[in-house]
Amino acid sequence: MTERLYLKDCYIRDFEATIVEITSHGVALDRSAFFPEGGGQLGDRGTLKWEEGELKVINTRQLQGKIIHELDIVEGLRVGMQIKGEIEWTRRYQLMRSHTAQHLISRYFQLHLQAETVSNQLKIEINRLDLSPLSKLSSDELNTITIQINALISTNMPVTISFLQRDEAIKFLEEKEYQTQYLDMVPKSVQEFRIISINEYDWAACAGTHVQNTSEIGQVFLEKTVNKGKQRERVYYSLT
Ligand SMILES: [Zn+2]
């Protein structure tokens, strides 16, 4: 198992670690701050450096509890080597901002339009989430929602991380009206849940990376919706 440094601190940009495995695709380290692709968030990119050289990490994935840092080539590396990992920060920070915005947008739609988030995907330029049950929204309605979500963001709400035991977490999130039905999909072997709280507005079980305060998000812009089936709308949003 790779120790996941981003779970407690999403702002770690570089770290030291030891190579524990080399595969044809990349390397696993004993600890890593690289976020592996999952939950709608792209995997991190960056660099692995050592005394004699450096290699680009082109993607990060998870495989059987390990974080695999995918490399174009694995030359010059050996198991046991000490390396320094550096995350491509501009890209990751953009994803942290978009991801935190997604929590707010999902909560807004749950509270005001009784629509649940059924999937989401964060990209660098444009992000999307699918909501249901939801009917087509006019551009006027989208503008109003954009204004209201930006008003929420501008209250500078702190975003905090906490850890709760599985049963305790599910009970807590049910009280907060989080969509706990999805938590059944988390393997039973996972006994500790990571809870992301946005002040007194939103609570979610999430393993992704987020900013520490909504002020870091900037402004969101809900661009359009596209119908994706009965009572299901895909909302596209970007950050400005
Ligand atoms: Zn999240």
Give an account of the 3D structure.
The protein has 240 residues and is α+β, with helices and mostly antiparallel strands. The protein folds into 2 domains: 3-87, Elongation Factor Tu (Ef-tu), domain 3; 92-239, Threonyl-trna Synthetase, Chain A, domain 2 (Threonyl-tRNA Synthetase, Chain A, domain 2). The protein contains 3 helices and 15 strands. The strands form 4 sheets. A 6-stranded antiparallel beta barrel has the order 2-3-7-6-5-8. Strands 9-10-15-14 form a 4-stranded antiparallel β-sheet. Strands 11-12-13 form a 3-stranded antiparallel β-sheet. Helix 1 crosses helix 2. The protein is globular and about 55 Å long. Zinc ion binds next to helix 1.
What are its keywords?
Elongation Factor Tu (Ef-tu), domain 3, 38% strand, alpha+beta, 2 domains, globular, four-stranded antiparallel beta sheet, 240 residues, binds zinc ion, Threonyl-tRNA Synthetase, Chain A, domain 2
